[in-house]
Amino acid sequence: MNDATLRKIDLNLLLAFSVLMQERNVSRAAERLLLGQPGLSAALRRLREALDDELFVRVGRGLQPTPRALAIAPAIEDALSGIERAIRPPAAFDPASWKGEFRIGLCDNLESAFFGPLAARLRELAPGARLVGVAFHKRDAARLLDEGAYDFSVSIHDEPASWHIRDPLFDQCSISIYDPKQLRLKTPLTLEDFTRADHVGVSFEGSNGSTNVDIALARLGHSRQVVATVPRFSALPTALRAMPAIATIPESIARCMAQLHGLTVSVPPIPLPAEPVTMLYRRIDRADGRSVWFRRLFIDVASAALEASGCRMGISRAAA
């Protein structure tokens, strides 16, 4: 059979052949295929011409397949079965029986707020799975995602590539935190208390440049004294308990620190912009059952964690 002949045979013709093999009757076959008898007869004629064989001959009120039809029927049935399996909707993901890794990329501050609750919930729902957290800088988020470092990342992401999807989660506000044993200040902090106190900053790269806090203060004609800068949020509680200083950091981690280390939180006395925290994942994973389940689990866990900690912001309706 040459290429020209193959091009004449489409899926509809093969399906018509298969049903005729089963029914051996044009009327019943046409009814199953939701075709009129003329349409099925035309399809059979095209198939006969392409294969150069009668395929079916009339015997009484029924049809009798020819030796050629009987010979090719098993292969056609296998092909149609394979197509049916390929396009059949995948089975629903079952976390209880799944074994493997779930991988998530989290910024330092978000890791402290969400990783523990996520691991605990995953242990309940998917006991055969393991959760792996991957640290990253937001400039590397897209590259690590493409390299398969994690299923998705949660951060303040840049504009995504066309093959990625960036979903909104929540707007991250900043609040101030300090040790009440070191700084005996009332809340909410006044602008005078805020500017007179020493401050501790957080910079992944050790930068001493202006931050949103410094810019907001400058607009009001004020400044602050940053006496120390730590590279990770995890170092803040020890620093604040050792010196009379204030840190102004994302609310989600600030409230976790306050609960764990007996620190005090206060709304800053200056207006600070909220930053959009988003989820970044690959477009090809948008409808994958396992990936969808894991993303939804994170959203549920993050929503509950934000509410339990007393954060003012919550998961966006679009994400929920």
UniProtKB/TrEMBL annotation:
Coiled coil: none
Keywords (A to Z) from UniProt: Activator, DNA-binding, Nodulation, Transcription, Transcription regulation
Domain named HTH lysR-type: residues: 9-66
Record field: transmembrane: none
Top-rank taxon, per record: Bacteria
PROSITE patterns named among the record's database cross-references: HTH_LYSR (PS50931)
A Pfam family annotated for this UniProt entry: LysR_substrate
One GO molecular-function entry: DNA binding
Gene3D superfamilies, A to Z: Periplasmic binding protein-like II, Winged helix-like DNA-binding domain superfamily/Winged helix DNA-binding domain
PANTHER family, alphabetized: HTH-TYPE TRANSCRIPTIONAL REGULATOR LEUO-RELATED, TRANSCRIPTIONAL REGULATORY PROTEIN
Protein family membership: Belongs to the LysR transcriptional regulatory family.
UniProt protein name: DNA-binding transcriptional LysR family regulator
Source species of the chain: Rhizobium mongolense
